[in-house]
């Protein structure tokens, strides 16, 4: 008898906590106590982002639609707040279009930017380290001078019996991920500057208003 595996529906969960800046001149494995168990620096990236919205409907709903280096992405907030964020990420054009239609009523394809208007465009120099084998420590410096960092964990979650992951399943998994980030940042508190971080879009729009 042949066994046929049912297709599994998955989603990508991302949990992140922001920090204002690094508290050390250079992040190294032995830069403070306790030491990182491991620390690997990834190549620097230059990222070009354009964000899209329609009368702030999407951002008000906790969704960010962007074109990053030519590829469309959607980040849908699933809880938390600005500093402690939990997202489901969409990269499928069909999924993004369906979400935009549900949220705004606009039925537009990617050829017309899903019927949205650009709200912000900037470039980011991104430094990334992988600490203790799985925690991504990210430091972003935007081309308008602002800097902000974040600790990220990602997980691909599978649904049961071929179905999509249930909302409760997503929330429980993201809570576990967030608890682990809190413990990580507490353990290595020497690496991160205290103080309230400011997001890149907040800083971008503040700069625009100051120029008016």
Give the helices and strands, then pairings:
Elements: E1 10-19, E2 39-41, E3 45-53, H1 57-60, E4 63-68, E5 71-80, E6 84-90, H2 93-104, E7 117-131, E8 135-142, E9 147-158, H3 167-187, H4 200-211
Antiparallel strand pairs: 1-6, 1-9, 2-7, 3-4, 3-7, 4-5, 5-6, 7-8, 8-9
Q: Care to describe what's here?
A:
The protein is α+β, with helices and mostly antiparallel strands and 212 residues long. It has a single domain, classed as Hypothetical Protein Pfu-838710-001 (Beta Barrel). The chain contains four helices and nine strands, in the order βββαβββαβββαα. Strands 1-6-5-4-3-7-8-9 form an eight-stranded antiparallel β-barrel. A hairpin with a 3-residue loop joins strand 5 and strand 6. The longest helix has 21 residues, at 167-187. The chain is globular, with a radius of gyration of 19 Å. Mean pLDDT is 91; it is low at 1-7.
Number of strands: 9
CATH class: Mainly Beta
Backbone shape: globular
What is the count of helical runs?
A: 4
Helix content range:
10-25%
Low-confidence segments, given as residue ranges, are 1-7
Q: What structural class do helix, strand and pairing data support?
A: alpha+beta
Strand content: 35-45%
**Mean residue pLDDT:** 91
CATH architecture: Beta Barrel
How many separate structural domains? 1
Q: Write down the Rg.
A: 19 Å
How are strands sequenced across the largest beta sheet?
A: 1-6-5-4-3-7-8-9
CATH-defined fold name: Hypothetical Protein Pfu-838710-001
Termini separation: 72 Å
Q: How does the major sheet shape up?
A: 8 strands, antiparallel, barrel
CATH superfamily: Hypothetical Protein Pfu-838710-001
GO molecular function, one term: thiamine triphosphate phosphatase activity
Pfam families: CYTH (PF01928)
Subcellular location: Cytoplasm
Protein name: Thiamine-triphosphatase
